[in-house]
Design brief:
The structure is a homodimer. By secondary structure, chain A is an alpha+beta fold. Chain A has helices at residues 2-13, 38-41, 48-60, 78-86, 98-103, 108-115, 131-143; strands at residues 21-26, 29-35, 69-74, 91-96, 126-128. The first copy, chain A, is globular and about 50 Å long. The two termini of chain A are 29 Å apart.
Amino acid sequence: MRRAIALSLDMMRAGRGGPFGAIVVKDNQIIGEGYNKVTSTQDPTAHAEIVAIREACRTLGSFSLSGCEIYTSCEPCPMCLSAIYWARLERLYFANTRTDAAAIGFDDEKIYKEIGKPLADQRIPTTQLLAEEGTAAFREWEDKADKVPY
Amino acid sequence: MRRAIALSLDMMRAGRGGPFGAIVVKDNQIIGEGYNKVTSTQDPTAHAEIVAIREACRTLGSFSLSGCEIYTSCEPCPMCLSAIYWARLERLYFANTRTDAAAIGFDDEKIYKEIGKPLADQRIPTTQLLAEEGTAAFREWEDKADKVPY
């Protein structure tokens, strides 16, 4: 955790983005590191956890981080927490909370509230279109003999 | 939407990943395209929407897609929906639903359920560590004169 916190401080001071750092650990070895790069790379998805997960997956050559743990300097936003589930990480450690993040102006808590609502009640207007045409890909996936599930 | 659906079909058939495609549109022009690349790039975050958002941000040179809309062949998972909020997209169109995705074996709906619970009740065990040390970066961010908010 001290490494994740050090990344959050050092990279914020270097002007790379918000004050967030994360590492992914397997068998007591760091296999991925990340810090927030949203404003320095113009990428709204470049949160510390996402960057660390992507690096760890490159290290292992796998889209699964099963058997690994993530240490993050702040409780993950819903994007990052969902990525942690998709990556099959087994444990999560954090220092600051989502409430602490809200207190310094980050939207984590607001986004948790939005995405917990039915789509029709959310701030971003949503519309379903071409449901019939969209379903073709799903039917073909079901029957695909050589698919790689994830 | 027909373009997003075409990406979902073509790239699934090409073996790039799951049956998902997305595009980002500004002023009736496509500025970013994405399809699911999880299994072909070993990146669990490479969902169609994330890929399309990153490409659109590169096109605009900005971490904000304010004024843009996203068309996705399937209702976004919570990772992608949160990314849509972080990217400040203004409208969302989708074809298949999260229930359709669950029916062909994807975890979107399960992850929505998990991340809606208090952390302590979630499937992935979580532990808060070094809260005192973590807070230093947040205090410094508050006072940072040259910070770029997002």
